[in-house]
Amino acid sequence: MTDKASGPPNAYMERTRMYYRALGYEKDYIWANLDEIPFTRLEKPLSEATVALLTTAGPPDGSNRNEAGRRTVWSGEMLSPPEDFNTDLAWDKESTHTDDRETFLPIDTARRLVAEGLFAKLTPRFHGVPTDYSHRKTMEHDAPELLRRLRDDGADAALLTAL
Questions:
Q1: What is the pLDDT of residue 6?
Q2: C-alpha–C-alpha distance, residues 76 and 59, integer Å
């Protein structure tokens, strides 16, 4: 058996490399490699936890862009989420679609899981996480901002559904 860290990339990674090349990037994407895992074990049962939902989709009005046009962390109210999202990200539009919000922001499913007792409750906001080509930007800017918002919302756990 080949060790995943040293073995050949899977087809997804090769497709991603080819996609970025087609977009005009000259250097191949380098997947993040962390010496320390930035996650912790949940300190309470999930049934007692406040859970936040995260998505990689953007708001419909594109308001998650800074002055330079780069995507930033953004938040929306769980009680009034937009019906549509900005899904101009790089994704395989031939194999899937974004017509069903639940596939990338499962609010209705999460509410059902609260009603069933799997989660104690949901945070008042969901959060949008930019997908950027820059590992440095993610680690130095986006991740700390997201963590601040999750703490402000009293989240014990976060569930990321990527677009």
A1: 57
A2: 8
Distance CA 82, CA 101 (A): 9
What gap in Å lies between CA 72 and CA 148, rounded to an integer? 14
Q: What is the pLDDT of residues 33-70, one digit of tens each?
A: 777 777 788 999 999 999 999 998 888 887 888 888 78
Give the span between the Cα atoms of 41 and 163, in whole angstroms.
25
CA distance 148 to 120: 21
The per-residue pLDDT for 2 is 45
CA distances 26 to 20, 21, 139, Å, are 8, 6, 22
CA distance 40 to 95: 34
Please report the sign of the dihedral spanned by the C-alpha atoms of residue 161, residue 91, residue 133, residue 77: negative
Q: Of 60, 81, 72, 64, whose CA–CA distance to 125 is shortest?
A: 81
